[in-house]
Amino acid sequence: GRVGIVGDIRYQEIFRDPEDASPDKYSVCTHGMNTLLPGASYYFRIRALNGFGSSEYTYKIFATLTAAPMHPLATKLSSHSVTLTWLFTKKFVNRFQSLRKLYHAAKDAT
Question: What would the pLDDT profile of 5-31 be if each residue is shown by its tens digit?
């Protein structure tokens, strides 16, 4: 299908009915996308087109799950304790810092 990009928005036509489409025939169209990023939102504007014209647009918003966190590593072991270390993405750290500031601002306001 046709593909286009306008600013940050990418659009793609994924299916078009044949010229001889008939309202008496029933067909199903599916389309999978396997290049989505974890923790991202996707906005879809969907409509059907066929030999009889087009439907109104339907708007849908979907979000993908966040990526799995890194596994913790045991960086220090003793007979009575363990120290675990793990990594965070920069996006996670920024979000955490924003929430911490919001928490402290709310706490100080009370």
Answer: 777 777 777 766 666 666 677 766 677
